Amino acid sequence: MSSVEQRVACLELNKVQPVVVGVSTGVDSMVLLHALKQQNIAVVAVYVNHHKRPLQIPTELALLERVCGDYGFEYRIFDLPEMGAGKNFHDFAHQFRYQSFVRVAQEMQAQAILTAHHADDQVETVLMRLVRGTSPRGLAGIRPVSHFDGVKVLRPFISLTKKQVITYAAENMVEFVEDESNASEDYLRNRLRHNVVPQLMGENEQSYAHVQRLLDMVATQNRYVDKLVARCIDEVVVFSEHQMSLSRERFLLVDEDLQGLVMAELLRRYTGSDAAAEKTDLVLNWLRNGIKPNAVFYIAQNTSIIREYDIIKFAYPLVITPLNKVQLNAGMQFIDNIKIVLDNESHTEEMTGYFIEKSMVVFPLYIRAFLRGDRIQMAHGGSKKVSRIFIDKKVPQSERLQVPIIVDSQGQILIVGEYAVADSVKKHNFIGACPLYMEQVNK
């Protein structure tokens, strides 16, 4: 049994469920189809038309149809949709290919997806990532086994060289179509393939094995680090529907090296991109040394990290709608998510009671949002800026426009949410008082 067929046999695939194979009709994927046929494995081949080689595509499709017919394999063809502006073509195409593989795998209840990546692909990929900049996660290279959207992806040829694959094709008369773009020096991968990899790997016949061994070690260390990071995130990060948040004080107690790894992972999750992780050091410096209790760190358009005293929030900016000014009438009213009962006893025990001295205010009363310059006459004499009250009570800036401000007809501020009351308002009932009960509810 050849080394190619041995790699397929080692997968121990069952002969009942099919496998989905990504096929370009190049030598690698056509050799994989041939080797699977020798093992009598049921196959569904998936070909994605990228519309980059219009003269070559008919030849590729004809070969796919003929070979699958000869082998008794099913096949599916997908057309790459038009790419939106600002996207990277290779990333877009890669994502679509794997989504297509998964779609067929789920439809056919396949046991796995197989691709024909080999050792030369591995070396080229790692070199490309080094040139463009990468992380330890990227240095792990192409993994022999991975998952995409919950479906297992196997790469049986990852330890075989391109030369071994081509030799198998020649010995077994495997037909394939050579991608004409492989000869172009316009692509970084091709320049590395033609000019760097042969010289590098030619220095030692064990170079491929050494590279793979190193990548396996990196992958093992990455898995261990990922567990540490995940455990730390579970301990310090709070997740809600629209945001992640953490306590700055608690986060800064974490080991400094682990802080960087955790922050890089949070930035990846927040933005969905590895690129944001490059700002890890800047974000950490902002967290460690920033002196403003309320501040914003802008990562990219529409994404920022917000500091509100001790709380650090990773949240997409929300459009904060301030409370509208609404007149309060006797009885019960719902204003946004605030329940108010004025001059009426139909309140519940959960509601906070305020008792307003009628002789000191001008009715009707109103509820509104905080305005810049607001001041309240305090019970102990003198007035105080409402903004100062918010600072003293550590009310986050994002919540200040939602704090209910109760005023009379002359604009005199009587109540600032749960944070302050004027000298005309008491927390206990008395003769000549107008009772007002208030509660925040999820209406």
TrEMBL record:
<dbReference type="GO" id="GO:0005524">
    <property type="term" value="F:ATP binding"/>
</dbReference>
<comment type="similarity">
    <text>Belongs to the tRNA(Ile)-lysidine synthase family.</text>
</comment>
<protein>
    <recommendedName>
        <fullName>tRNA(Ile)-lysidine synthase</fullName>
        <ecNumber>6.3.4.19</ecNumber>
    </recommendedName>
</protein>
<dbReference type="InterPro" id="IPR011063">
    <property type="entry name" value="TilS/TtcA_N"/>
</dbReference>
<keyword id="KW-0547">Nucleotide-binding</keyword>
<keyword id="KW-0067">ATP-binding</keyword>
<dbReference type="GO" id="GO:0032267">
    <property type="term" value="F:tRNA(Ile)-lysidine synthase activity"/>
</dbReference>
<keyword id="KW-0436">Ligase</keyword>
<dbReference type="InterPro" id="IPR012795">
    <property type="entry name" value="tRNA_Ile_lys_synt_N"/>
</dbReference>
<dbReference type="Pfam" id="PF11734">
    <property type="entry name" value="TilS_C"/>
</dbReference>
<dbReference type="InterPro" id="IPR014729">
    <property type="entry name" value="Rossmann-like_a/b/a_fold"/>
</dbReference>
<comment type="function">
    <text>Ligates lysine onto the cytidine present at position 34 of the AUA codon-specific tRNA(Ile) that contains the anticodon CAU, in an ATP-dependent manner. Cytidine is converted to lysidine, thus changing the amino acid specificity of the tRNA from methionine to isoleucine.</text>
</comment>
<dbReference type="Pfam" id="PF01171">
    <property type="entry name" value="ATP_bind_3"/>
</dbReference>
<feature type="domain" description="Lysidine-tRNA(Ile) synthetase C-terminal">
    <location>
        <begin position="365"/>
        <end position="427"/>
    </location>
</feature>
<dbReference type="InterPro" id="IPR012094">
    <property type="entry name" value="tRNA_Ile_lys_synt"/>
</dbReference>
<dbReference type="GO" id="GO:0005737">
    <property type="term" value="C:cytoplasm"/>
</dbReference>
<dbReference type="GO" id="GO:0006400">
    <property type="term" value="P:tRNA modification"/>
</dbReference>
<keyword id="KW-0963">Cytoplasm</keyword>
<keyword id="KW-0819">tRNA processing</keyword>
<dbReference type="InterPro" id="IPR012796">
    <property type="entry name" value="Lysidine-tRNA-synth_C"/>
</dbReference>
